[in-house]
Write a structure and sequence with these properties.
The complex is a heterodimer of chains A (376) and B (598). With 376 residues, chain A is α/β, with parallel strands linked by helices. Chain A is built from 15 helices and 15 strands. Chain A is globular and about 55 Å long. The relative contact order of chain A is 0.12. Chain B has 598 residues and is of the alpha+beta class. Chain B has five domains: 176 residues, Rossmann fold; 85 residues, Elongation Factor Tu (Ef-tu), domain 3 (Beta Barrel); 72 residues, 2-Layer Sandwich (Alpha-Beta Plaits), CATH 3.30.70.870; 107 residues, 2-Layer Sandwich (Alpha-Beta Plaits), CATH 3.30.70.240; 110 residues, 2-Layer Sandwich (Alpha-Beta Plaits). Chain B contains 14 helices and 33 strands. Chain B has an eight-stranded antiparallel β-sheet. A six-stranded mixed β-sheet of chain B has the order 2-3-1-4-5-6, with helices on both faces. Classes of the chains: A alpha/beta (376), B alpha+beta (598). Chains A and B meet through helix 8, helix 9, strand 10, helix 11 and helix 13 of A and helix 13 of B.
Chain lengths: 376, 598
């Protein structure tokens, strides 16, 4: 149950050496601000000392956390251990860029208690990496994975992106095959999202670069799932695959079932007791508020039962586990079979969901259209 | 009477009619700056937004002319669409002159001509006014040439103005006084007043706008509406000066209002003659027509819980729209609703929009239909305006559909295109006249069903906006009619059925399936759309299921954004009607009538 579940801690490190062509996440290339940021972060951690005493997952995301020096990462880890209680068996993840770390660095990260590493590989094709504006090449990606293994990481995740402009399905399958041969314990395969505010997004929206049809994107999605499941990965969430559920990201799953989480750093979101709040996107505002000893919160909302229900519904449909009907009724007071029974049965007949042993879960085809499922 | 001038402003859309009216109102000081807003006479939001006038309006402008005398200038504003052409004709019948407004940059346009012809029919003094002379693209010389060659008016009679910046407004006011004749009429004769508009006031009941031709009228008089043959005691008479100004008496030549305890606007017929009950005039004023709805469609609430609200809204709406009629109706596919009658598609559109906007209702309209006449084998004659009441082929002895006479004015060069269009729409018995060089008048007899949906738009498009069009219902004519049903995923949707000419059934079926395919969004299943006559499927289209509609990222805890996006989509979906497991948007019901040509 969400209320008893232990919260997760997310720290957003908003720095990148260069900005990738597809990315609209909160990030800056002005690394001169790192010192001010770390100072602000340290203050922000203090602000939540009493609200979030214990965590069992920590996730350093970005941006590019591996852009920080090992000493800086160590300082952050020390600070959170001093202020919060990080449970013994916690999952502690860091996102890294393949170009940033060598074996010594990776061993030091292990030494800091970081036990899960997520490598932003994105592609194993040179041309694609250039298109995406990444600063590593595919060799570096392979080396990074090998060294992470050598450094003793058992949980190694890699991120890949598919559906790039002009990308052939066969080339994506090559990338997938190479990735599988590296035997990571976790794979995230994201469909490229075209954001108007990004260089790549603009080129696609103006048709300077070709855009895939819904049908082709579905082929990418379905075949990715098929290939990875055939290779022993569980397709546990629309974009996420793990070598068995024990290798699934424990941290990310908290976002999907209303477990409390604390997000620190600019743009980070937090959730606790039906409240969600989020920090300023602007690093300058974030730093200034903390200089003034204020919570750097940009806005917040209190979720009513209807909103919680809606979230649980659409988030549940994004996961292989699906929605437990009894739990859903207990938590959100809604008997789904009573409310949406005929529609659900139609969807089951159409092969989009499975209703079985007290749960509703999406099939592979259902996952491909789960936004629409959520609207019934 | 010497000091009265009754006039109207006529113009092509966007040539600045409302702005000029605003300027005249300001110049004569009827409205102080504090209460001033743009488009003073267009009271409804929908009028301001669409830049069209739906209801007629009248306002009295007190004006002291250069001769030192004070005049009452009665400005009668008119609607500007063929659906309301009868109202326009009654408004013009109340005037002695018009300002024919022409945009200096755009020159003479279709409605300029159409309105000019209307004004000529009523023998009105016409003052051409060239507006927007402040525009850099203004070409007054060219417009003058057009006034001469295309309108056949004396270009020396023109005035120039910029309603936007106020240039030329005093000259216009002077010209109204000097050139438009004072009304004639005799206040000693028996009362004859023309009703040119009526609107509903929540406190006073129906307020009738009228023009007195003969006689006088005051509070306490007992009046009779000659066509309706109803009798009322007058409570109040007066003039409009932005607000109602009570006066002791209205006399021949004047324009004013009457309040007489009339409950709804439906008790008043536009064009009817008001006279005194005791001393009636000999005969009613000419030109009266009974306005009857010609297009019918059913309105259903999207959520059946809203049925009562819809009933209440229609009740209220009806108070102010005499041309609109409705009665209870029910559909197998859409549930309880109302069958409604409209003057035309624009009227239907306006009713729909006002119900949604002013009463906050989400509604669906069924496919519009005309009223057919069937003689049954048992000898009974039935009128059917709702395809779901189609009697069935075996029961029918004779089927007939309403025909219109369409009169079209257009520059000669478009004759070929318009003839094609009319023949395509089953037009027959055409005649052609040349009222002035280069200008043709084309008359066709056509089935009403062929013109209700998009004929006007198509006509405007093939004449590049230079044609004007009007029609009269003439009679019913025999026609082989069949019922075209539409099945969505195998389920018949009665609200999508149409009665069609047998020879056109197949092509209409194909067209309807194609249109629905474009209008119904992809859903989670493949959807088959079929057209059927009797039990036979004659057309088919398929909407493929969506393939992929989920975006990858829902990480980093920003669930709020995603939820809001879904909530927005869900709201959009609420505006669609669920039929079985298929959501059908409002637009689909009208789209089945849309022809292939556009």
């Amino acid at each position: 149950m969400a209320t008893k579940a232990v919260p997760g801690l997310y720290i957003h490190i908003p720095f990148c050496r260069v900005r990738c062509a597809y990315c609209d996440f909160c990030s800056t290339t002005d690394i001169a601000l790192i010192t001010d940021y770390l100072h602000a972060l340290s203050k922000e951690i203090e602000l939540y000392r009493d609200d979030f005493p214990t965590f069992d997952t920590v996730y350093l995301g970005g941006g590019t956390p591996s852009l920080l020096s090992l000493n800086q990462i160590e300082a952050i880890m020390e600070k959170i251990h001093n202020v919060f209680s990080i449970q013994h068996s916690s999952e502690i993840t860091i996102e890294v860029n393949p170009a940033d770390l060598d074996l010594v660095d990776l061993e030091r990260l292990r030494g800091l208690g970081i036990n899960r590493i997520n490598i932003g590989v994105q592609s194993l094709e040179e041309r694609e990496l250039i298109l995406l504006g990444r600063r590593h090449n595919s060799c570096l990606a392979l080396v990074a994975i090998e060294e992470a293994l050598k450094a003793g990481f058992e949980n190694i995740g890699i991120d890949l992106i598919y559906g790039l402009p002009g990308q052939r399905l066969s080339r994506w399958h090559n990338t997938l095959a190479k990735a599988i041969s590296l035997n990571p314990s976790h794979l995230s395969c994201y469909e490229l999202e075209l954001k108007p505010g990004t260089p790549l997004g603009r080129k696609c929206l103006t048709r300077e670069l070709p855009v895939h049809s819904q049908e082709i994107l579905r082929d990418f999605f379905m075949s990715t799932s098929e290939i990875l499941e055939d290779s022993g990965y569980v397709h546990y969430e629309i974009s996420n695959f793990a070598k068995g559920m024990e290798k699934a990201s424990r941290h990310n799953q908290k976002y999907w079932d209303h477990t409390p989480y604390l997000g620190l750093g600019p743009s980070a979101h937090s959730f606790k007791a039906n409240n969600r709040w989020w920090n300023h996107e602007s690093l300058a505002e974030y730093i200034q508020d903390l200089r003034d000893n204020k919570h750097p919160v940009s806005a917040s909302e209190t979720l009513g039962l209807g909103e919680l229900l809606m979230e649980a519904w659409f988030l549940g449909l994004r996961t292989k586990r699906g929605i437990d009907l009894d739990v859903f009724q207990q938590r959100y007071g809604c008997d789904l079979m009573k409310e949406k029974g005929p529609a659900l049965i139609d969807l089951a007949k159409a092969g989009l969901i499975i209703i079985e042993s007290g749960s509703v879960r999406p099939t592979r085809s259902g996952m491909a259209v789960c936004d629409a499922l959520a609207l019934i | 009477m010497e000091n009265i001038r009754n006039f109207s402003i006529i113009a092509h859309i966007d040539h600045g009619k409302s702005t000029l009216a605003d300027r005249l109102i300001q110049h004569t000081g009827v409205c102080d700056a504090r209460n001033y807003k743009d488009q003073m006479l267009d009271n409804m939001d929908i009028e301001r937004e669409r830049g069209i006038t739906i209801k007629s309006q009248a306002i009295t402008l007190p004006y002291t002319a250069s001769d030192g005398k004070t005049y009452s200038l009665n400005l009668i504003d008119t609607p500007g669409h063929v659906d309301f052409s009868y109202e326009v004709s009654r408004s013009l019948a109340s005037c002695e002159g018009v300002l024919l407004l022409i945009d200096a940059a755009q020159g003479v346009q279709a409605q300029t001509l159409a309105n000019l012809y209307l004004a000529m029919e009523h023998d009105l003094e016409i003052i051409p006014v060239i507006n927007k002379i402040d525009l850099p693209s203004a070409d007054v010389e060219r417009v003058l040439e057009q006034i001469d060659s295309e309108l056949g008016l004396d270009p020396d009679t023109h005035l120039k103005c910029s309603a936007k910046d106020g240039t030329g407004i005093s000259e216009i006011l002077e010209a109204i006084v000097q050139r438009i004749p004072a009304p004639n009429g005799d206040e000693n004769k028996r009362l004859a007043a023309l009703i040119f508009d009526a609107h509903y006031d929540a406190f006073r009941g129906t307020v009738v706008n009228c023009r007195l031709f003969d006689g006088t009228l005051k509070a306490g008089d007992v009046i009779r509406f000659m066509f309706n043959d109803s009798v009322y005691r007058v409570e109040e008479v007066g003039h409009f000066l932005m607000t109602r100004q009570k006066c002791s008496q209205l006399s021949a030549g004047e324009v004013g209002y009457i309040i007489a305890g009339i409950k709804t606007v439906s008790d008043v017929s536009i064009g009817d003659t008001i006279t005194l009950n005791e001393k009636p005039c000999e005969k009613p004023l000419s030109g009266f027509k009974e306005v009857k709805p010609v297009v019918f469609a059913s309105i259903y609430p999207i959520s059946s819980d809203d049925y009562e609200d819809l009933a209440e809204a229609l009740d209220k709406y009806k108070l102010n729209d005499a041309a609109f009629i409705y009665e209870k109706d029910s559909s197998a596919a859409l549930g309880l609703g109302f069958r409604c009658g409209f003057l035309g598609l624009l009227h239907l559109d306006i009713v729909q929009e006002r119900l949604e906007r002013e009463y906050d209702l989400s509604i669906i309209l069924s496919v519009p239909s005309v009223r057919y006449r069937f003689t049954l084998k048992n000898g009974n004659v039935v009128y059917v305006d709702n395809p779901s009441h189609y009697p069935g082929v075996m029961a029918i002895e004779k089927s007939e559909e309403p025909y219109i006479r369409a009169s079209m004015m257009l520059p000669e060069r478009y004759i070929g295109a318009v003839m094609n269009l009319c023949v395509e729409r089953r037009g027959v018995n055409s005649t052609m006249n040349y009222p002035s060089p280069g200008r043709a008048e084309l008359v066709f007899e056509m089935p009403l069903a062929e013109v209700i949906y998009d004929f006007y738009d198509r006509f405007k498009s093939v004449t590049q906006g230079y044609g004007s069009y009007d029609y009269d219902l003439i009679d019913y004519r025999e026609s082989p009619l069949v019922l075209l049903d539409i099945l969505v995923n195998g389920e018949k949707v009665d609200a999508l059925s149409q009665i069609v000419h047998r020879d056109r059934a197949r092509s209409r079926g194909v067209q309807a399936c194609d249109r629905l395919k474009d209008e119904i969004p992809r859903q989670m299943y493949r959807i088959a759309i079929q057209g059927a006559i009797g039990g036979e499927i004659i057309s088919r289209s398929t909407i493929s299921a969506f393939r992929k509609d989920v975006t990858a990222k829902c990480y980093g805890g920003d669930i709020t954004r995603k939820r809001k996006l879904l909530e927005k989509q869900k709201k959009g979906k609420k505006r669609m009607k669920m039929i079985g497991s298929v959501s059908i948007p409002q637009s689909a019901f009208l789209a089945v009538l849309k022809s292939d040509s556009d």
